[in-house]
């Protein structure tokens, strides 16, 4: 089978499309014929060799955590899923024609593989950081870098819980944020004062790693009310860096519920082929994403 692999840490040019042995479903796992794989910032962070304790790497390594596809092997002890089912979930080395998933759920009716592939890690992350930052219904949450996949999920989940959201993003994505129910502003000069004019901030999330931790602490008045998923230096300012996943099966179950009720939709901004994985990483790292980027297999 074909898969994306890298033999050394570095830029997107280290990604190679190679022929590899097919993986197989071990006990408690399933294998899918991948139809689409989600492109997440953690993918290029791992490829660059950034220190991410939750994702140890042994070279040569595959790439990708999220995927959607059709079940074609069911491991020993697995119940509730059959060969031929359409599922989405999280596993390893998902930039490939076949991948083994460790957590999965059946895709809601009407959901395309491309869109489904963008949900697993994104929704788990969104649910986790909303919980960790401790924001409650009736309060206001500031989301820095809100137009990407995690930001899109955070805004919708928070609004569904009765939380007011303020989102920062580029000028081109202001209407997109408003469409998700957020009070929106750009992140260029003067953004802190613009946020203050929008209302009191009870908690804040840093999703872009753009060097705004001090300002988020200033706006909330307490480093314990700020969580970052993108700035590895956040702990130096007493701000929590959240990088270890919680329960992916629980997150997938909530995603299915929200999608089925029309409360969650994350658009696919751009799709790439496996041969375009390097371009997908380049674009993801550049930011300014509206929704998700995925590989179509």
UniProtKB/TrEMBL annotation:
Q: What's the domain of life for this entry? A: Bacteria
**InterPro entries the record matches:** ADH-like_N, ER, GroES-like_sf, NAD(P)-bd_dom_sf, Quin_OxRdtase/zeta-crystal_CS, Zinc-ADH_QOR/CCCR
| Molecular function terms from GO | oxidoreductase activity; RNA binding; zinc ion binding
User: Can you say where in the cell this protein is located?
Assistant: Cytoplasm
Gene3D superfamilies membership = Medium-chain alcohol dehydrogenases, catalytic domain (3.90.180.10), NAD(P)-binding Rossmann-like Domain (3.40.50.720)
Alphabetically list the UniProt keywords: Cytoplasm, NADP, RNA-binding
UniProt GO cellular component terms: cytoplasm
- Is-annotated flag, keyword RNA-binding? yes
Q: Which residues form the Enoyl reductase (ER) domain?
A: 10-295
Tell whether Iron is among the UniProt keywords: no
Using the UniProt record, give the first listed, main subcellular location: cytoplasm
Subunit composition? Answer: Homotetramer.
Official protein name in the record: NADPH:quinone reductase
């Amino acid at each position: 089978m074909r898969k994306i692999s890298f033999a050394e840490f570095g830029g997107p040019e280290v990604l190679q499309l190679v022929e590899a042995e097919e993986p197989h479903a071990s006990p408690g796992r399933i294998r899918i014929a991948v139809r689409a794989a989600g492109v997440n910032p953690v993918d290029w962070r791992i490829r660059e060799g950034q220190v991410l304790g939750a994702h140890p790497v042994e070279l040569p390594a595959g790439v990708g955590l999220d995927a959607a596809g059709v079940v074609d092997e069911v491991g020993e002890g697995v119940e509730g899923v059959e060969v031929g089912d359409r599922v989405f979930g999280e596993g390893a080395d998902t930039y490939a024609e076949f991948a083994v998933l460790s957590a999965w759920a059946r895709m809601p009716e009407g959901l395309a593989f491309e869109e489904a592939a963008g949900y697993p890690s994104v929704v788990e992350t969104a649910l986790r950081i909303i919980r960790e930052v401790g924001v409650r219904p009736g309060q206001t949450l500031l989301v820095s870098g809100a137009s990407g996949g995690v930001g899109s999920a955070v805004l919708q989940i928070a609004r569904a819980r009765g939380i007011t959201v303020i989102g920062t993003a580029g000028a081109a994505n202001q209407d997109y944020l408003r469409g998700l129910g957020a009070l929106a502003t750009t992140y260029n000069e003067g953004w802190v004062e613009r946020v203050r004019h929008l209302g009191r901030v009870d908690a804040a999330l840093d999703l872009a790693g753009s060097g705004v931790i001090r300002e988020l602490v200033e706006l909330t008045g307490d480093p314990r009310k700020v969580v970052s998923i993108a700035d590895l230096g956040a702990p130096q300012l007493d701000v929590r860096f959240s990088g270890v996943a919680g329960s992916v099966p629980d997150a997938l179950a909530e995603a299915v519920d929200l999608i089925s009720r029309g409360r969650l939709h994350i658009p696919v901004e751009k799709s790439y082929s496996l041969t375009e994985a390097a371009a997908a990483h380049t674009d993801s790292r550049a930011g300014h994403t509206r929704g998700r980027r995925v590989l179509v297999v």
